[in-house]
Amino acid sequence: MITLAATPLVNNPVLIFFIVLVIILFAPLLLNRFKIPHIIGMIVAGIVVGPYGFNVLARDTSFEIFGQVGLLYLMFLAGIEIDMYHLKLNLKRGMLFGLLTFLIPMFLGTIASVWLLQMDWVTSVLLASMYASHTLIAYPVVARFGITKNPAVLIAIVGTIIAVIGSLLVLAAAVNIHNTGEFSISDLLRLLGELSIYCIVIMYIYPRATRWFFKNFSDKVTQYVYVMAMVFLASWFAQIIGLEAVLGAFFAGLVLNRYIPNASPLMSRTEFVGNAIFIPYFLIGVGMMINVRVIANPDTILVAVNMIAVAIASKWLAAWIAQKLYRMEGVERKIMFGLTTAHTAVALAVVTIGYNMVMPDGHRMMDETILNGTVLMILVTCALAPIVTSSAAAKIKIRMLEETAEDKTPRKQKITNTLIPVANPITAQSLVDLALLIRNQTGRNNLYALHVRNDNSAGSRAVGRNSLDLAEQAAASVDARLTSIERYDMNTVAGVLNTIEERDITEVILGMHRKATVIDSFFGSKIDQLLKSSNRMMIISRCFIPLNTVMRIVVSIPPKAQYETGFRRWVMCIGNLARQIGCKVIFCCHPEVKPLIRGVLHKEKYTIRDEYRDVEEWDDFVLLANRIQDDDLFIVVSARRTSVSFSPDMDSMPGFLQKYFSRNNLIVLYPEQFGEEVALTTFVDPLASDMNVAPSELWMRALDWYRKASQLKRRLAHRKKRINKIDL
After folding, report:
1. pLDDT per residue over 53-62, tens digit each?
2. Residue ranges of the alpha helices (H) in 341-424?
3. What number does CATH give the domain 415-511?
4. Class of the domain covering 60-401
C-alpha cells in the first residue's frame, strides 16, 4: 500500500503559500521553453515537492480544500465559457459522442478486467466505470488558444457530462449490488428521478435569483461572491443526491452562462481568480497524489500497463468513431481525444470506494495493486492529455487565423474609434460597459472617454475627474485600453464635435437626456444639436437594468434602412451585443430589409438567435408599445432628416417614446450618414446650413397632415390585419 513520509520539510503556512506561488509562477515559464504545456508543469511540480517526491510539502487539508475548489472551478469555467448557441447546435452530436466514450470503455474495461486481471464481474464493471469517466483537465489549453467555440471542443464537453453521469450511475449500481447482493432497478430509477428534479430546480430558481440579485446589487465584488456561492450550493446539492460535485459546478456554469458575458468585468474577475490560484492548486494537488515509486513493483507495472492501455485505447477509439461519423478532420479527433483522456477525480473516487469495500471472504474488492495502478494511470493520462490537446489546438488556431485572413483580404479592416461623453459619475460605468459589449472582436478598437467643462471651478474639475476615473476603471476591469480626455470648451456640444474631428471618431455613445421642463424636448437640445452637426453613428442609451439581465432585444427598423452608409455597422453592433449577453434578437423591419440583415450577420459570422417580424407602416411601430416588456431592451433605429430612410412619421417618434416607453430600457440609434456634416446656423452666417437640409418644420407638418388624412382609411384596415402578426 502507498504510504506517506512522516514529516514534511515545510510546515509554516506563510512559507507553504509562498512555495505554491513560486511554483505557479515559474513552472509554466520553465516548461514553456521546452514546448511543454503549463498544466504538466504544475503536476510535475506537485510530484517533486509532494510526499512522494522530496517531501517539501504535505498534502494536508489546505491542499484538499483548495484542490476541490480548483476542480469545481475548472468545471464551472467550462460551463460559463461555452457558447450556448453553438452548444445547442452540437448537442445531439455531443450526446452521441458521450454514449460512445462511455460505452466503449465500459465494454473494453469489463472484458479486460475479467480475462486479463481475473476479476469478478461486479469488480470489473466498477473498474470499467473508472475508464469511462474522465476530467476536463486539458480545458485550460483550449481556453488559452481561444477555440472554445470549436465544434470538436463542444462535442467533447457534452460527451464529458454524459460519460460522468453514466459512470456515477454504474458506480451506484455496483455499490448497491455489493451491499444487497442483487441489482435494484428501483434505486437506479430513484437516482434518475432525483437528478431530473435537481436539474429542474436549478434551471428554475437560479436564473430568477441571479437576475434579481444583479438588478439590485451592482458591486462587482458582491456579484462575484454571489456567483461563487451559487456554484458551491449547486455542487453541494449534487453530492446530496449521490452525484459528483463537478456535475453541479458544470451545470451551474451552464445556467449562469447567460448572465456573465465574455466581455464583462465579472467574467474577467472569475477567470483571473480561477486561473491564478484555484486551478493551479488543484493541479499541484493532483501531482502530490502520484507516487512514481510504484513503477518498481512488477505486479503494479503489469496492472498499470493494462489499465493505461484500456483507458487510452477506449477513449481514442470513441474519438475515432465520432470523427468518421461526423466527417471531421484528424486534428479534431485529437482535440476530442485529448480532452477526454485524462482521469483524476472520478477515477480516484471509484478506486477509493472499491478499496474500502470488503468482500465476504475478507479481501478487498480492489487491492493495493489496483490502487497503485490507478495512480500510475492518472500520471500518464494527465501528462498525455495536455500534450495532445495543445498540439491539436495550435493547428486549429492556425487554421482559424488563415480562414479569417482569407475572408478579410478583399476589404480593408476599418479602425473603430468610439467616443463616450461622460457628464457625471452615475452613468459613466454603464456607458463604458455598453461600448465594450458592442465593440468588434476583430480589428482595432479605440475607446475615448470625454468630459467637457466650461468653467474652472473646483467642483466642476472634481466631477469631471471622478467621471473619467470610473470610466477608466470599467475598461481596465476587462483589460481594455481607454483614453480619457478632459476638455475645456465653450459648451458640451462644441467640445464633443471638436473631439470627433480631432480623434476621427466613428461612433458616439451617449446617455439619454432626462427631461427637466415641460417645454424640454425628449432628447434635449444638446443631443439634437449633435445629431444635426455630425454624420457619425450616435447611440443614445437609457437602461434601468443591467444589460446582462435583458431577456430579449427588440429592434425597430425603418424602411429603406439598408441604403444608409452605416447600415452594416449598426447591424454588427447589435450582433455583438446579442452574442455577448446571449439573448434573442427580434428584428421588426420591412421585408426588403430582412435578407440584408441576415446577410450581414452571416457574412460576419454572428451565430445568434434572431427572429424577424414584418413591419411596413408606422402603425405597426405603434403596436409594439404593448409588446415590449420590462425585461426587454428596445432599440429604435432612427434617421436624420437628410437621410434616405427618414420619413415624416419620425417627427412624432420622440413624443411617442416619452409617452409609452418611459419605463422601458431604450436605445435610440442614428446610423452613420454619408456626406459632410451639417453646420449649425449662426447669426453671423444665416445660410451656413447645407443645401440638403430638410424643409421648414411648418412645411413638413403640412405634408404630414395631408398624408395622414389621405391614408387614414387604408391604415385602419391594415392595422386590423396586422395586430396578430406582430405578436412578439
Report:
1. 888 888 888 8
2. 345-356, 368-408
3. 3.40.50.620
4. mainly alpha
